[in-house]
Specification:
By secondary structure, the chain is mainly α. It has helices at about 45-55, 60-65, 80-160, 165-215, 245-265, 305-325, 335-354, and strands spanning about 15-20, 35-40, 40-45, 220-225, 225-230, 230-235, 275, 285, 290-295. It folds into 3 domains: about 15-70, no CATH class; about 100-165; about 205-354, Orthogonal Bundle (Actin-binding Protein, T-fimbrin, domain 1), CATH 1.10.418. Strand 8 (about 285) and strand 9 (about 290-295) form a beta hairpin. The N and C termini lie far apart (about 110 Å). GO terms for molecular function: SNARE binding.
Length: about 350
């Protein structure tokens, strides 16, 4: 059995405590049952103990009279506490209203920024159109100047044949005009030949670059409307939002296709209607005419179904644009992989024929 014995018991009030004015090292003798309390790096004892130390001459009376040694007692007023609580609640309410106003101001500022950006875009388009109009005006002036020169030559010939100049002199003038015309034609033909030769070199270089792209992104038809691009097997039906193939495989294949189409547009010096941003399996398309800040992802995971389907449609439109620019016929709403393969095969056949 375990027995418990009460050794001692003590009870005191906080008002009975007072700070010990000296350190314990200076006090060599204290009563046996002295209670010491340490609070805020100070040692407190009972007031009667300090009286004992004063009578014993261990503590000076001057130190004992200092009221700062006593434990400070704080008084609290309930009404002041309630007023403070009401002030805090009022401040919280004011803060919430300020946050709401700040959010409204932020929305207005963002709307103003969007309006300003749209205005700047319209101004840029206006400047481009003005530049185009000025170029057309210059071209029109050149054509008018050429037309006036031709009219002058015709009028001179009419005067020549209507006047009384002898026939041999007229024939001589006509022969000289014919020789000058032949010289001009031969110069035009040589310049045209140079232009065509340069165009052929550019065309051949483009075909060689497409051949190099085919080595990086090989597209093969394996049957049943299924293709492979860099050994990733994918069917035409997998590009829809309800495809059964793994989403990561589809997004990776679409990333390859996006980069392939992007490089083809660069090689062919073609500005695509829908700008492609190749970013591997997280590529996307931007419609900078109707939706300047919108992004249409070429991956299905965690995105809107309509935006994904619209991205597939935009990618097909870009492929058709490239096909039309090469003078080929594209199938309306045809499979993307099929049209890309036909385009690359046409470029390779042109290279072999040339």
């Amino acid at each position: 059995m375990r027995y418990e014995t009460e050794l001692f018991r003590f009870q005191f009030s906080v008002n009975d405590l007072i700070v010990l004015p000296k350190s314990l090292v200076e006090l060599s003798s204290l009563p046996f049952n002295t209670c010491l309390f340490e609070f805020n790096r100070r040692i407190y004892v009972k007031r009667d103990l300090l009286e004992f130390l004063k009578e014993a001459g261990l503590v000076s009376k001057k130190l004992f009279r200092r009221e700062s040694f006593m434990v400070p007692i704080k008084q609290y007023d309930i009404m002041q506490g309630l007023e403070s609580l009401e002030k805090v609640i009022h401040l919280l309410h004011t803060l919430s209203q300020s946050q709401v106003k700040t959010s409204v101001y932020q929305e207005k500022a963002s709307q103003l920024i969007k309006d300003r950006e749209s205005q700047l875009l319209m101004q840029q388009r206006k400047l481009v159109l003005q530049k185009r109009i000025s170029e057309l005006k210059i071209k029109r002036e050149v054509q008018h100047e050429l037309l006036r020169s031709l009219r002058t030559v015709v009028m001179h010939e009419q005067k020549l044949f209507s006047s009384g100049i002898p026939i041999p002199r007229a024939l001589l003038l006509t022969m000289r005009m014919n020789i000058r015309c032949k010289d001009e034609k031969s110069g035009l033909l040589s310049r045209r030949y140079d232009v065509l030769r340069t165009a052929f070199k550019i065309r051949y270089r483009q075909a060689e670059l497409v051949k190099a792209l085919l080595f990086i992104y090989p597209i093969k038809y394996i049957g049943s409307s299924e293709y492979t691009i860099r050994n990733i097997r994918i069917a035409n039906a997998d590009l829809s939002s309800n495809g059964k193939t793994d989403e990561e495989s589809v997004s990776t294949a679409l990333g390859f296709v996006a980069h392939l189409v992007f490089m083809l547009s660069k090689y062919f010096d073609l500005n695509l209607r829908y700008r492609i941003v190749p970013f591997s399996s997280r590529s996307y398309i931007k419609d900078e005419v109707n939706d300047l800040f919108g992004e249409y992802p070429l991956y299905r995971k965690g995105v809107d179904k309509d935006r994904y389907e619209r991205a597939i449609l935009y990618l097909r439109k870009d492929v058709e644009q490239i096909i039309f620019s090469r003078g080929l016929k594209a199938m309306q709403q045809g499979p993307i992989f099929s049209q890309l393969k036909d385009l690359i095969d046409a470029e390779l056949s042109w290279t072999s024929a040339s």
